Structure formats: structure tokens, C-alpha cells
Here is the input.
Amino acid sequence: MRAELTYLWYYLTVILRQILPYYLLGTVIGSVISVFAKDKIHGLMPKSKGLTGIIFASILGILSPLCMYGTVPIAASFSQKGVKDDILAAFMMSSVLLNPQLAGYSFALGKTVLAVRVISCFLCGLTAGLLVRYLCREGIFNFEGFKERSCHDTHPNLFVRLIKNIGRNLKATGMWFAVGILLSVLFQRYVPQEGFADLFGNHRALGVFLGATVGIPLYACGGGTIPLLRAWLDEGMTVGAAAGFMLTGPATKITNLGALKIVLGIRNFVLYILYVTVFAVLTGLICDYVLRLGC
Here is the structure.
């Protein structure tokens, strides 16, 4: 028993050294942007128009620090100001997938995976906006009942405001981060490396499909998935399979789906799930193909 606890403690310390600095970095980045730049970022949205506006909106969605239940009321206010649905689709899609805090966490996965995550999330938002622009003749959003939430960052002292925001972010993600660390420790100790590598690494197409599929039920919080992804990548998961997981996971997180079902309606909600799944699988396959050519 003592020997087994020693093994588990070893894996725990290794994973914490690898992940914890990036978790803290991501938390601070997200809070800094939320306190000092959120209003400026959102203030740029009503000026977005046309194809350039869709590109711009997808970028702003990634820069926005809000969760989905914060994004939907903001999008509702944009809609009231006359922002078109294609612009809103690009903004909301990329906002669902990535934010500055999660990007900070993703540094722990390496530069290649981070780049794949940022680029794929941007392209997913861009493609969603283009599809709405050219294929949807009727409005796809119903924001009735959604109002902007009151802002918590109101303390007159900016430093105190930042500290409080960091505290809220740690409280919101800390438990899930701890769960992710625990699961990654158990995974590294008890899951055979050969079997995992064969499943997610050697059979690339199957690995990408499984990565995208596993992301649907397993994803709960971005901070909690980083330790698991790091362990999986170390054990043989391809970058394409990880990309599939990183796209379907946040896009189908249960809390996000609740808000999206309300604003999209049943038909568009089903199309949304189908779009995300297909995009994630294709992205993973293309990613692995390109990376294999570069080796």
C-alpha cells in the first residue's frame, strides 16, 4: 500500500509541476482581460459588418472572457443594436470554444497544440458565420428573455477588482482542475500505455473520431481537461484527436447547451450539434495529415 501511494504521489507532483503554472497563468490572463479590456472588446462588435465583420467577430469571440451564459446576453444586446445573425454566429461560436483564460491553460499542452486550438476555434467561428450568411435566409436566434448580467467588477480600486476577479475564477474552476489532476494521475498509473497509443495514435482516423466523440460526455470545464489532455498526448494521442476533443468538448458542454437550445430552437440546435461534430472530425483528420507531412 505504501509503495502504491508513493507511485501516486510521484505522478501527482510531476503533473502539478507541468500544469499548475499554466493554470495560474491562464487564470490571471482571463481576469486581467475581464477587468481591463472586456468592455473595449465588446464595444467593437456593433461596428462589424460583412465578410470582414465575420472574421473580426470570430477573433473577438476568442478574446471575450465571458462564459456562454455571459455571452448570450451580450449577443442579445448586439442583436438589439442591429448586428446581423452571421456576425453573431461567428462571435458566439468562437466564444463557446475558447477564451483568454483557456488559451493560457493550453500553453501546458505545447506550442503546436496551442496553435491548433486557437486556429481551429477561429476557423470554426468563421465557418459558422459564413454558413449562416449564405445558407440561412431567416433569423436563427431568439434572444427573448436574455438580459445582460450585472457586472461584478465594480470596486473603485482596480487592484482590488482584479484580485476579486481572480478569486472568482479560481473558485469557479479550481474544483474541476483538481478533478482533472486526479484523473490524470489515475490514468498515468493504471491505464496501459500500449493500448492507449494503439487506440488514439496508431489508428489515426479512428483516434480522431474517438477524440471528438469522447469530448461530448467528458468535457465539464476547460481547466479540468488540460491535465487529462496532457497525459493523453504524452501516452500517444495524436494532435488531431486532441483537436477533435478540444472542439466538441466546450461546444457540447452541458451548461452551454442549455443556453444554446433556448436561443437556437430545436431545429437549429440539432444543426449546431451536427456542424460542430463534423467540423471537429474534419479538423482532426486534416491536422494529423498536415503534421504527418511535416515530419
Summary: The chain has one domain: 2-294. The chain has a mean pLDDT of 84.
